[in-house]
Amino acid sequence: MPNDRSGITQRMTAWLNHHGITKKNTILVGVSGGTDSMVLAECLYRCGHPIEVAHVNYQLRGSESDGDADHVKSWCASREVMWHEHLTKINESPDGIQAEARRIRYHWFAEIQGQLKDRTESRVYIATAHHSDDQAETVLLHLLRSSDPLAQSGIRPMSEDNSLIRPFLDESRAELEEWASLWKLQPRQDSSNKKADYLRNRLRNEVLPLLEKLRPGSARHIARTAARLQPLTAEMQRAVRETVTRCSEKNGDHWRLNLGPWRAEPLRMEALHWLASHHHVSSKAVQEIAALTATGIESGAQFTSNTITITRKKQALIWAPQRNEPNS
């Protein structure tokens, strides 16, 4: 197994050491065959780290998809790296093809991770090749779609609960393309990445290039801002939970929001968003719920959704889950 000392491998080694990942830990690398994931697998391999490769063939692009699988398999064979392939088809999903593909992918990665844990009797990590441009795209998507300001912290470098790592978040797409060329990886190109019917693709192919033209380094700047927001987000989440604790009481499956102390809290609206989310109410409805807190609203005023009924009762809001009527 090689021990390459080029720039990106040194940065990878430092990143793994910083996060406490040693050569006792196997890393399962998700590899599509594209530039980013091929460079990730090659980089970890050149670091001398024990890896195995997981590839999902969704069969969405016919011979192109099979070509991706063959390319990854060939790379693994040439380096004597264990290869796992999952052949699947995507069913219709209300969340769209990309979301369903992600669900399938990570569910299968977790299955392989469990098998490797049993075999190696040590912690196993799953690595994906998200980079700084992906981070910038994600932040912009959240700005356009999400009402949660905390979502601007973007993709995290490590998820402790499932040992998912993303060691390339400080690397740019252009830099990874340079390493792919230097290492002669000949990555595959996914034609679906050019389609303009996905918002993320339009951000990638139209918006980010424009931002880079207006101000070079924009994507990396957005990514680094997201990284700075991550510890602040954790503190904000803690503060919001503490606000909810001070202002509300839980009795069985009912909640009581006491409006006197709630009005005195600087994070009162974030607490209301937290309660709405906890009760599966869309953030779009929070302003309507907030209207129930106004001075002069009489007892009995209500907000109703298919999950909750919120009733103004003097100086409180009572949150009562909807009861499903039994079949007659």
Structure description:
It is a single chain. With 328 residues, the protein is of the alpha/beta class. It folds into 2 domains: 223 residues, HUPs (Rossmann fold), CATH 3.40.50; 70 residues, Uridine Diphospho-n-acetylenolpyruvylglucosamine Reductase, domain 3 (2-Layer Sandwich). 48% of the residues lie in helices and 14% in strands. It has 11 helices and 11 strands. A 6-stranded mixed beta sheet has the order 3-2-1-4-6-5, with helices on both faces. The mean pLDDT is 91.
Task: Compose a concise summary of this entry.
The chain folds into 2 domains: 7-229, Rossmann fold (3-Layer(aba) Sandwich), CATH 3.40.50.620; 252-321, Uridine Diphospho-n-acetylenolpyruvylglucosamine Reductase, domain 3 (2-Layer Sandwich). It contains 11 helices and 11 strands.
User: Which structural class do the helices and strands define?
Assistant: alpha/beta
State the CATH architecture of the largest domain.
3-Layer(aba) Sandwich
Helix and strand pattern: HEHEHEHEHEEHHHEEHHHEEE
Helix content: 40-55%
Span of the ends, CA to CA? 68 Å
Under the CATH scheme, which class of the largest domain? Alpha Beta
How many structural domains can be distinguished in the coordinates? 2
CATH fold title of the largest domain: Rossmann fold
Task: Please report which band the strand proportion falls in: under 5%, 5-15%, 15-25%, 25-35%, 35-45% or over 45%.
Answer: 5-15%
Tag the structure with descriptive keywords:
14% strand, alpha/beta, single chain, 328 residues, Rossmann fold, 2 domains, 11 helices, six-stranded mixed beta sheet, five-stranded antiparallel beta sheet, Uridine Diphospho-n-acetylenolpyruvylglucosamine Reductase, domain 3
